[in-house]
């Protein structure tokens, strides 16, 4: 019996290797880069998601539309709602992203996405992971800043491979063992490394931390480190230093030295974990936005989940849209509206920190998400 299991596992492993080799070939051939300035119209898709997602994304989109009202009126920007990326619809169709939803997403240039529910266990894949793969959003860019502590970090998390690409494709001999796969490719690593070093170069940064566990994950993380150093050679003046993920998690809470870090580049799972830690240092995962950028498409989202408990207890309308507003800021920057992005982040800081005329608590004693969005727009009007 066990022999048959082994044979099946080996067959599956062969299929995986063939598929991943084919993916590498596609990566090499399909480098279409969107030039937003050259487009007649930029289409921004808004996806609600689950739990508090529809509320916070609708309110963030309302603020975004307010900021882009001239461009929308002139037909240079369209803000389009994309329906159907809900847990109910995904479960009914047993698709991480139903085909019609994916087709609509591919008609947009950039996407603002609310959090989606990821079922534990079972075989339904996370919508996030599927979207990152389907739209080849290989760079997960997560900034964290705490100005009063001189912290200005930006994480370049590889977003399409590593532990995630085959996460739903592990093998098992029931009652005996289970194996998952981690896959790191040369091209996949090169492009995330280049994104990190380009960012460093264009933003006056001179230090990139390459974070892995290459002493243990010798093949995959070993490759990741080696390729990052290869890419670093094209960027003289930028120091590239290796760090192991375990000590890096400690360093991020070391107040004496953490402000020296600037840019981080790291494989998928380590990036997932450490960016939650970093966001917590900034004030919580609810305060962080995240860009998922590829050459062709880009998607912007909050880094927190869909908070189903807030929905169940009737508190969804009191949810805080700050993370989605930060995601909108990154979206604006990505499509070239730098001044509007600066304005948006300035208004957010006035509303949340300096002025605080409308305060969200997540409960009935605080403002609603919609009231906060109105306050944001009043503030923007004055800037
Ligand atoms: C994130 C999230 C996702 C991830 C989940 C929802 C699949 O934690 O964006 O960091 O693990 O990447
Ligand atoms: Mg995460």
Give a concise summary.
It contains 14 helices and 12 strands. By secondary structure, it is of the alpha/beta class.
The appropriate CATH architecture of the domain at 32-137 and 294-383 is: 3-Layer(aba) Sandwich
As a percent range, the share of helical residues equals 40-55%
The chain-level structural class is alpha/beta
Calculate Rg over CA atoms.
21 Å
CATH H-tier superfamily of the domain at 32-137 and 294-383: Isopropylmalate Dehydrogenase
Characterise the protein shown here.
By secondary structure, the protein is α/β, with parallel strands linked by helices. It has a domain of 196 residues: Isopropylmalate Dehydrogenase (3-Layer(aba) Sandwich), CATH 3.40.718. 45% of the residues lie in helices and 17% in strands. It contains 14 helices and twelve strands.
Question: Secondary-structure blueprint of this entry?
Answer:
Layout: H1 2-29, E1 42-47, H2 53-67, H3 69-73, E2 77-82, H4 87-93, H5 99-105, E3 110-113, H6 127-134, E4 139-146, E5 151-158, E6 171-173, E7 177-179, H7 186-202, E8 207-212, H8 220-232, E9 239-244, H9 245-251, E10 263-266, H10 268-282, E11 289-293, E12 298-302, H11 308-312, H12 322-334, H13 338-354, H14 369-382
Parallel strand pairs: 1-2, 1-3, 3-12, 5-10, 8-9, 8-10
Antiparallel strand pairs: 4-5, 4-11, 6-7, 11-12
The structure holds 3-isopropylmalic acid and magnesium ion.
Keywords:
383 residues; alpha/beta; Isopropylmalate Dehydrogenase; ten-stranded mixed sheet; two-stranded antiparallel sheet; 14 helices; 45% helix; binds 3-isopropylmalic acid; binds magnesium ion
